[in-house]
Structure formats: C-alpha cells, structure tokens
C-alpha cells in the first residue's frame, strides 16, 4: 500500500481505489474537486515528492509541478500540497 500525505491535513493509505482523489475523499480529506474526470483542473495539487501514474488522459493540463488527483494513482508514497 502507498501512503498519501497532504501537507497540513495528514495522511491516508491508497489501497486500490480508482484514483488518489477517491482515496483522499473516502478518508475525509477536504480536497478540492468538481468534475472528477480531468476536465476542470479543480483537483490540481502540487506533487512535492513521489511518483504517480496517470490512469486517464485529462483534458485540463496542470502546471509542470502539479497533478490532477482525479486522474492519477500513486506509485509508492507521495507528498502533496494544495495550492
């Protein structure tokens, strides 16, 4: 299992949910989102450390240091920061 840490909010385990957004939402984190499909960019967060894999091709293109939590899964432990 991978650990997802959100700076200032805590951490949760990723144990096979569809996306990081789903894992964080199920764990009670106050994560920004709207469409859950990679269209709006509301779930963009800064990837501080770790690697992720894109599970769906988003329409919205985040900045170079950001990821869309609705479109990625962690490939090990990751640290995120909400801008």
What does the model show?
The protein has 83 residues and is mainly beta. The chain is 8% helix and 35% strand. The protein has one helix at 20-26; strands at 2-6, 10-14, 44-49, 52-54, 66-68, 72-74, 78-81.
Main attributes of the structure:
single chain, 83 residues, mainly beta, Ubiquitin-like (UB roll)
Question: Could you outline the blueprint of secondary structure elements for this entry?
Answer:
Layout: E1 2-6, E2 10-14, H1 20-26, E3 44-49, E4 52-54, E5 66-68, E6 72-74, E7 78-81
Parallel strand pairs: 1-7
Antiparallel strand pairs: 1-2, 3-5, 3-7, 4-6
Query: What is the CATH first-level class name?
Result: Alpha Beta
CATH topology: Ubiquitin-like (UB roll)
Strand content: 25-35%
The main sheet comes to: 5 strands, mixed
| Number of helical regions | 1
Number of strands: 7
H-E string: EEHEEEEE
Assign a percent range to the helix content: under 10%
Radius of gyration: 11 Å
Taken from the alpha-carbon principal axes, the silhouette is: globular
Strand order of the largest sheet: 2-1-7-3-5
Write down the domain tally.
Answer: 1
Mean pLDDT over all positions = 96
Distance, first to last CA? 26 Å
Explain briefly what this protein structure is.
The protein has one helix at residues 20-26, and strands at residues 2-6, 10-14, 44-49, 52-54, 66-68, 72-74, 78-81. With 83 residues, the chain is mainly β. The protein has a single domain (2-81), classed as Roll (Ubiquitin-like (UB roll)).
